[in-house]
Amino acid sequence: MQNKQQLIGTSIGGRYRIHSLLGQGGMGHVYLAEDLKLKGKKWAVKEILLGTTDPESFLDEAEMLARLGHPQLPQLVDYFTTDDGSCFLVMDYIQGPTLQDLFEEKGRQMPVVQIVGIALQLCDLFHYLHTFKPRPIIYRDLKPANVMLGELDQVRLIDFGVARHYSQEKQSDTMQIGTLGFAAPEQFLGLQTDPRSDLFTLGAMLYYLLSGGHYAYITQKPIEQIRKGLPDALTSTIQMLLQEQPQNRCQSALEVKHRLRSLHSEMTEVRIRQDSSLTAATIPDKLIVVGGLFAGVGSTFAAISLARILHAKQIPNAVIEHPANEPDLYMLLYGDQRAPKDYIFASTALTGHTANETTPWTSGFTTWVPLHPEGFQGAWHPADSYRLLHTIKKPIVLMDVSTHWGDSTVQELCHSADEIIVVLDASPGKCNRPSTHAHLALLDLYRKRGKKIHFVANRAAAVGRLHREWVDSLPAAPICTIPEFPYEVVMRAVWKGACIQDEDQVLEKLETSLTPLLQQFLPDAIIRQRRYPSRNTMFSRFK
């Protein structure tokens, strides 16, 4: 193999003239090269050091990179070997500083909101790699020097030298590789690495950036002891990511994303409140879990009502019917008539690995995600919920969980939710059921962990002394009440196959009543925007 300085100024592969050394590591050197065929075009050429890999491993990396099709990952354009056995990968040249460069330039002090924003992008990239077909890809070497930042802090991952395909059948990796200070324990113990290994490296990098350049494995201190004043949501997530045993960490990149997203949203909201040019497009992402304290209380009606209020304000949103539910949404929306032709139910498609083939069912700014009328068939896991949320990609997602608070996948969603809305009424018998008390105990546990729990009353509540006794029996008083509508108005909408919430005066009455709830997750400037016209409807005629 030639000396790295000897390569500079020479041509390799019959096409690439080496200009300078861009970087180096234990697996190889990366050079800046000019394309002699495409004049003016520059590439990053990575030389794989002899002895660090074999021809088969080199071909594995080349073929893996060739199949990647993500704008924030390196694009392989060529690969070849030379007569002396050297192996080269030719990739697009990404200009810009690395995260390590920026970190040092800023005196090892970066804003928390910027670090969290970078982490959220990395979660999306890891999700892409970890769900790659036919086999997941484990990156295994996340560190600031392998993260490049473009305009507006767009993240790009570089250097896939130690990445590999994940195989469940393997009990251990063949090579113990990684960067000391960031790599997961299993990488140095010769054990199997999986997507949770990448999540450990993410936690290690967050610790490094937030602590001013300290390594978690050296300090052996919680991050909050190193840097004071960090949000609890951030410190608790880092603590989970850095657990030695993989089963004790967050289990997917999307889980990490949803844990951090509420924190990023709060920081963004501060910026929005200071920005006079506020628009609906700047609304922070929100995962809102909506359920009933007991059956038949109207959680689905509440979810649809919120969705149509958001639609009227031109805020993209989605209503998802959780797979644990009894199917209801498809029939309420007259799916046989209104669903797109050949509509594929998202939960079914996702577990059947055909999620990319689904056609969204949209109504204005709302995307409907109902269950199949016959119910969800099969096993649903927490990771499936996060994959489903990733496919929806709407700023505000309303997850209707009905009364399934005890379901493990619902509990996992509640841990990640930005808001939890609980619909109830003053039915004495239902309020005193053992299942109701169990639900209240679980919800109170979420509240103690810092989750925002909002009780919403539906239909006529108790009055006078009974009302006070009812409110006193709850962990918190209902924040608002969903108004009742005349039976005739509701039935007319049903017979028309229409959504009653789309009647202008019904919608206006709903918004007025639900404003205290809307104020919990929408900026005031957006709440004040009323985009639906005032005109005569069947509701006004009935009045």
Automatic annotation (TrEMBL):
Keyword terms of this UniProt record: ATP-binding, Kinase, Nucleotide-binding, Serine/threonine-protein kinase, Transferase
Binding residues annotated for ATP, in chain numbering: K46
EC number: 2.7.11.1
Enzyme class: transferase
Domain Protein kinase: 16-261
Reactions listed under catalytic activity: L-threonyl-[protein] + ATP = O-phospho-L-threonyl-[protein] + ADP + H(+); L-seryl-[protein] + ATP = O-phospho-L-seryl-[protein] + ADP + H(+)
Molecular function (Gene Ontology), one example: protein serine/threonine kinase activity
PROSITE patterns: PROTEIN_KINASE_ATP, PROTEIN_KINASE_DOM, PROTEIN_KINASE_ST
InterPro entries: Kinase-like_dom_sf, P-loop_NTPase, Prot_kinase_dom, Protein_kinase_ATP_BS, Ser/Thr_kinase_AS
A Pfam family reported for this protein in Swiss-Prot or TrEMBL: Pkinase
Full protein name: non-specific serine/threonine protein kinase
Species in which this protein is naturally found: Paenibacillus sedimenti
